[in-house]
Each structure stands twice: as structure tokens, then as C-alpha cells.
Design brief:
The chain is about 30% helix and about 35% strand. The protein has a seven-stranded antiparallel sheet. It is α+β, with helices and mostly antiparallel strands and about 150 residues long. A hairpin with a 6-residue loop joins strand 6 and strand 7.
């Protein structure tokens, strides 16, 4: 009987550790400068709307969204998200195609304030504990971009 080479054992240990790490949920909510459900819904649920603030380019095909950050001719990142749930004028829930945590998703939810007749955007996302600060920073940048691009 032959023993596994050390690198194989180390690889398996690393793989086991990576698959057992659970992502943590974060929630962020920001008030929006709009009372129009149609405008906000378009911003969070369409390729044109998401392309204004979430990524440099967004393409929709059936229930999939393809996101590109950066320029094609230089450093860039591409990711695909599958639509898990979509309720008009309420929320959209996506899961990255390469997501390994079965409980992780990205949700953007419109929240109506009856007193002001305004809306806020509630985002739920997931990250590994060591990536939480970076994820908060990314969402702050996204909200800044949303405000600059749309005035919301």
C-alpha cells in the first residue's frame, strides 16, 4: 500500500477547509431619492439599470445576468449570476454561477416608506469573514455610483 504524496494530502486538506468555510451574511440599506417604484425596479432588475451602477457592462439572457468590470482589452473580471427569484416592484435575488456556498445569494430589495412615500434599497450579500470589510467597501462604492449616475 502506497501513502499519498504530501502535496496531495495538503491539497485535500486545503480543499476540505475551503469547502467548510461558511460565508457570513451582510445587509446594507440606503435611502433613495425617488418615489417611483418603476424607476427603482428598473435600476435593480434590468441590464440597463444595473449597468449604471453595479458593473461596467451587464447583459441579460433569459434568467442569467453577465457582469463585466473593467475594459475588455485590459484587466477585467466577468461573472455570471442566475436569477433565483424576481418579484416585480419588490426584489430580485441572484446567485453567482461559481458560488460554492448553497446558502449564499445577492438580493436587492425595494423597501417602501409609507410616511415619506419614498424608497430605500436593502441589499443582502454574503462573504467569507476575511472579505467582509472589502464587501462593505464595494457596496459603498456601488451606492456612490448609483447616486452619481442616476441621482437616486
Amino acid at each position: 500500500m502506497f501513502a499519498s504524496p504530501p502535496f496531495t494530502y495538503l491539497y485535500k486538506e486545503t480543499l476540505i477547509l475551503l469547502t467548510q468555510m461558511k460565508k457570513q451574511q451582510i445587509e446594507i440599506e440606503r435611502s433613495l431619492r425617488s418615489t417611483s417604484a418603476n424607476i427603482i425596479w428598473g435600476i435593480i432588475s434590468t441590464e440597463g439599470g444595473m449597468g449604471k451602477w453595479l458593473a461596467d457592462e451587464v447583459k441579460a439572457v433569459d434568467d442569467k445576468f453577465f457582469f463585466t468590470w473593467g475594459d475588455e482589452w485590459s484587466h477585467h473580471e466577468k461573472r455570471c449570476a442566475n436569477t433565483l427569484e424576481r418579484v416585480r416592484h419588490s426584489h430580485i435575488r441572484l446567485r453567482w454561477a461559481d458560488e460554492t456556498d448553497p446558502e449564499a445569494y445577492l438580493e436587492m430589495r425595494m423597501v417602501h416608506n409609507e410616511m415619506t412615500d419614498g424608497y430605500s434599497l436593502h441589499v443582502t450579500d454574503f462573504a467569507l469573514p476575511e472579505d467582509l470589510d472589502s464587501l462593505y467597501d464595494i457596496w459603498e462604492q456601488n451606492f456612490d455610483q448609483l447616486r452619481q449616475a442616476t441621482g437616486l
